[in-house]
Hints:
alpha/beta, PAC2 family protein, PSMG2_sf
Amino acid sequence: MRDPGDLYELTADADGVPEGLPLVAGLTGFADAGAAVSQFTEYLLGTLDQKVVANFDADLLLDYRARRPIIYFDQDHLTDYQPPALRLYLAHDELGQPFLLLAGFEPDFRWEQFTAAVLQLVHRFKVASTTWVHAIPMPVPHTRPIGVTVSGNRSDLIESMSVWRPHTQVPANALHLVEFRLQESGASTVGYVLLIPHYLADTEFPSAALSALESTSASTGLIFPTDRLREQNREFVARIDEQVGDNPELAKLVGTLEQRYDTYMEGNALRSPLTDEDGELPTADEIAAELEKFLAIRRNKDDAPGN
């Protein structure tokens, strides 16, 4: 394997990073239901004091043709180019507590070398623990708290927070491999899978970002400002509730999910809040299609003359 150090370059601020900090990570790429990870990292970078301590080489890690960067065209000339970035930051939470944040694109290439590079940085800065988040769509209701599946070697968090513990094979995220290698080495690591309502998977669901922040706080003790996100979430949920209330079929489907979720959380024999009485997955596509049809109707009404 190539030298892991070839994938990143430390900045001058790296020398000032204290030892023993927690590492928090969220990478965007394969799946990001409810825009959980993108909102989570953008919120942290936009609200907290931070500085870059390491830059990863996008030319070595990213497939530009699969995830094309944005360039701006102003009438007759190009004005700006936004290259994708994957960086390690030194940030401070609302109380001034320092932590490391790995944020940006998920690598397309060199996963083993990238994982070795992250472990090299973990060793260099004597990282105390690693926490990472990602999100997947599930047929669960938006009217209930977002559940999480917890992985890693933090048994306290697994026992207290993990609502769904499947035996299954899943398409991997690059951070799955990082977690796997950290666990092999005996380093403290925890991964949170946020279970996002299927019918909101393609939206920017503020509750998803809130769940990511709260889960991260549980494993790190970091405190994050959430007032703005909570207000956005109240407005978002109010709009969804109005739309569901105006559509009897969708209301029935959401009600069925609520009943199944509540039964599962009460310790019913159901193996998962995602299955029906026969152990089959509910018709998540039907839920999504119904909501999409209803939203299209609403948009057409709003766009009609006189509205």
